Fold each of these.
Amino acid sequence: MRRVISPLVAGAVIGATAVALFSSVMAPAKAASSATYKELSVFGDVLEQVERNYVTPQKEGDLIEKAINGMLSSLDPHSSYMNAHDAEEAMSQIHGEFGGLGLQVATEGKLIKVVSPIDDTPGAKAGVLAGDVISEIDGHSVRGLALEDAVAKMRGPVNTPVRLTLIRKGADKPIKLTIVRDTISVQAVKSRVEGDVGYIRIISFTEKTYDGLERAIAKIRNEVPADRLKGYVLDLRLNPGGLVAQAVSVSDAFLDRGEIVSLRGRNKDEARRYNATSGDLTDHKPVIVLVNGGSASAAEIVAGALQDLKRATILGTRSFGKGSVQTILPMGKAGTLRLTTALYYTPSGTSIQGTGIAPDITVEQPLPPELQGRVEAQSESRLRGHIQGQSETESGSGSSAYVPPEAKDDVQLQSALQLLRGEKTDPAFPPSQEKAAALQ
């Protein structure tokens, strides 16, 4: 079994498309200046006035937590503070099991936006779509509510209902749904055989992902003889991210050598680089990776590595463009700080922050009539306050994030199968190994 041992975790923590690094050690903090202490004194005076004179009583702990989140939200959409309860919930998601509705969410202005519903969960079954904006939870507005607070309201005991009000592009009026909570056990990897092609879908990058991928490849190889197996489709569509160590391990499963990803922060001397090890689990069979606007963070690490190293052809539409790195810093019993500390770069030295992964072969997925005008592009570059990418343009990142439930209607998947079977050709498939030599 191949594993990359690393303290790095790229994560969809509480549903946000974030790359995270769990660490209790960071560069020593500099002593605060006298000006900083003066400002903190002002904050203390304001806090005291609110506690004494505001029209309704306020809890000191709640006020301080909101103040911290206000400061962090002014930095970028992915920095935040989690109290002890929220941090525990986040860890349960990283472990691949948690309670709730199964919705991956992020902040959208002062509201909460659905990045993608997780397959076979209450949210997905109730008809929640990627791009839906949650305006109310149980009749209460979420405007201005911290992401962690909104997630906490959607989680709760199994078999209890949650009422959501959704704003959907193209819908005449808000959509009201009552969804019953359930235990969300995320199956990180799903696979099947499509005749003479192995199909593997990675739903998220949890602690179980690499093991699931290893089992999926072994199962496919057992079902289809090597001389008949045309190759693999690796489906990363609607994948909002996960553990970076798992993203590195998944990339390594298809590679023999070369840099997979590098992480670079303020201090250039502390850049981290992760390289592939020898041994391709697929025996160098052709690979096509599917991406769309719902492919973010750790999913983009994998797509970027396999694209730059010419191990796979990327097919679909432009990915989300989430290229920032968050460090998860325990704050003792008080909670956990999630702070953006770096950007990650593909093997060619390209940051996809605000630009996304551009496919080698662009294939648009048509929307069914009932969804036309109702599914908007998913994009980091559209998030208010996002960090400007080094190559970001006005067109930004992202694209539509729709995948048909039936394989026969999946134009992107069918295009990949036709290429692998030689039923159609494209200059980008297979990729040229000669062009990858300089990066390996």
Note: The first strand starts at residue 8 and ends at 9.
Amino acid sequence: MIQLDVNIMGQSYKLACKDGENKALLDAVAYLNEKMCAIRDTAKIKGTDRIAVMAALSVAIELLATKSPEGPLSGLSMSEVKQKIQLMNETLDQALTPQENLF
């Protein structure tokens, strides 16, 4: 096992991976960082946890699309996909807002 120091949205992380898998891990880190920064820069989402959830949903949609011949969102327009993502964001806001008052 080797350890890599990486940076995602300005936050440092120490990650471990098997020998020979460091390039794949670094590629994944770069991809996730790009997704999270894009969400942060274009959406009205505050908080790294919310940005991470939205990025995870985006990556999950991409993954599922590769597993299904027609994709999980087949038949939906880009506008409809954006509406679904907005609804997910609003649901997250409603669920996480009460927790913000705890801190």
Note: The chain has a mean pLDDT of 84.
